[in-house]
From TrEMBL:
Signal peptide start-end: 1-21
Organism: Parachaetomium inaequale
GO molecular function: feruloyl esterase activity; metal ion binding
Stored Gene3D superfamilies: alpha/beta hydrolase (3.40.50.1820)
Enzyme class, broadest EC rank: hydrolase
UniProt similarity note: Belongs to the tannase family.
Protein name: Carboxylic ester hydrolase
Keywords of this entry: Calcium, Disulfide bond, Hydrolase, Metal-binding, Serine esterase, Signal
The EC number(s) this enzyme carries: 3.1.1.-
């Protein structure tokens, strides 16, 4: 269903959003017309490739501050004029970037093509792709408030601002609100489920950087890059010129441990208690590529198991999918789980829980083999009577245990499919 309304895209259309702890500094709005973009599925993570053609939307930017903190945060919302589907889809960032960069804009292009009002935030960090320009107020002094903006606060602000802009523009709040992100965007999605359980009805989150402080420390050890650009241990030592070249393993471990002590409560998202999100009726779908070489897929499996141990009704609100052959968010021999977002939406809007999902593998000859993805802890099993492993219909999800299972074999071969079944 698309809604055609008489809407006016100008700054005066928008009442200043009311966000506790924030002060709106300015609102800008301008109509964008004849906007086209091609959006490959790899930048949408859980949604299929799409084409955005001749779109007309209201581009609204809100500049605000948290008084006393000297920050300036920009939220950018795109509100479709012709074909709004009544829904809101916020998109995440990547690496040290909360949003407002090419990956977020690609995901927004996709959301717009499907009729969503969509949004991104810079969390007040500016446009840099790493933390170097903002991490330290001065040598030895970490900008904890900006780190907190990135970690959590900007996410709730963004949800409130997005819904408020939608209300001003269309005359009503969105029927359903969704989050879509991977990596940093995955971490953001889990933070929302953990701390702001009513912000979104549905959260689709891939390869989440759950153990942020550990992750960045341990990614740095093999590299031990000299001279700066080591944001996480930059953070711990508070010294941009600290030279890691000659750091012993013991010294490194101590810094990594310190990093956890200082920042876990700020930015890590390993809190398994999702009961408030569950009670609010929220639905969560996570996925993780089993050939991810940046964020270990076992961390997300461990998180799912931890949630299962504290929230008895996990089946009522949370599904996790492991994607054989898929790299970090995209890439590798595994394809994107392009049906998951639609399944999440059906769960939120119709109560139909996601079961098996479409998957694919590119074999060694470059041919596509169709597979299914199963909600963890189920595994995909080939029906031996059906016999043709390249057809999704020949696979089914079964409870884990003793099955000879090609997907398992693929995982063990690190993303390389077996040539012979
Ligand atoms: C719309 O954009 C296309 C290219 O994307 C261009 O060829 C066309 O001239 C534009 N039309 C108008 C009316 O600006
Ligand atoms: C592009 O969109 C505008 C506004 O909706 C419409 O008037 C125009 O006919 C469209 N052009 C094409 C080529 O579809
Ligand atoms: C939306 O507006 C902001 C602020 O003027 C600008 O930086 C951004 O490029 C605009 N986006 C589009 C798609 O026009
Ligand atoms: C690291 O150790 C090497 C070899 O002992 C030494 O030449 C170099 O100056 C050291 N670098 C720093 C930054 O201390
Ligand atoms: C399996 O199915 C694919 C796709 O329909 C087909 O190209 C291939 O020949 C089939 N292989 C076997 C062994 O039947």
């Amino acid at each position: 269903m698309s809604v055609s309304l008489f809407v006016v895209c100008s700054a005066t259309t928008f009442s200043p959003p009311s966000v506790y702890g924030a002060e709106i500094l300015s609102i800008e709005a301008s109509l964008v017309t004849n906007y086209s973009a091609s959006v490959p599925d790899v930048y949408r993570y859980t949604q299929p490739s799409t084409q955005l053609q001749n779109a007309t939307f209201c581009n609204v930017t809100v500049l605000y501050t948290h008084p006393g903190q000297n920050d300036k945060v920009i939220v950018e919302a795109w509100l479709p004029v012709d074909n709004w589907n009544g829904r809101f889809q916020a998109v995440g960032g990547g690496g040290w970037v909360p949003g407002r960069f090419f990956l977020s804009y690609d995901a927004m292009n996709g959301a717009l093509a499907d009729g969503y009002a969509t949004i991104t935030t810079d969390a007040g960090l500016g446009a840099s792709l790493d933390a170097t320009p903002w991490a330290l107020l001065s040598p030895g002094n970490v900008d904890l408030l900006l780190l907190q903006n990135l970690a959590s606060v900007s996410l709730n602000d963004e949800a409130i601002i997005g819904k408020s802009l939608i209300k001003s523009f269309y005359g009503k709040v969105p029927e359903y609100s969704y989050w879509n992100g991977c990596s940093q965007g995955g971490r953001q999605g889990l933070m929302l489920a953990q701390r702001y359980p009513t912000a979104y009805d549905g959260i689709a989150t891939g390869a989440p950087a759950i153990h942020w402080t550990k992750l960045f420390s341990y990614l740095q050890w093999p590299q031990r890059r000299p001279h700066g650009n080591c944001p996480d241990l930059l953070f711990v030592a508070g010294d941009p010129d600290l030279d890691f070249t000659n750091l012993t393993h013991a010294e490194f471990d101590r810094l990594a441990h310190l990093s956890g002590q200082m920042y876990n409560s700020v930015i890590s998202t390993d809190d398994p208690d999702l009961s408030a999100f569950c009670e609010a009726g929220g639905k969560l779908v996570t996925f993780h590529g089993l050939a991810d070489s940046i964020i270990p897929p076992k961390g997300t499996e461990q998180y799912y198991n931890a949630v299962a141990s504290v929230v008895p009704d996990i089946d009522g609100f949370y599904r996790h999918y492991e994607v054989p052959g898929l790299g970090h968010c995209f890439g590798g021999r595994g394809g994107q789980p392009t049906n998951l977002f639609a399944q999440l939406r059906a769960w939120v809007e119709h109560g139909t829980a996601p079961g098996e999902s479409l998957g694919q593998i590119t074999d060694l000859e470059g041919k596509t083999q169709h597979r299914i993805l199963c909600p963890y802890p189920q595994r995909a099993r080939l029906d031996s009577k059906c016999g043709n492993s390249t057809l999704a219909a020949c696979w089914s999800c079964v409870d884990h245990g003793g099955v000879v299972d090609v997907l398992e074999a693929i995982y063990e071969h690190r993303g390389v499919p077996k040539a012979e079944l």
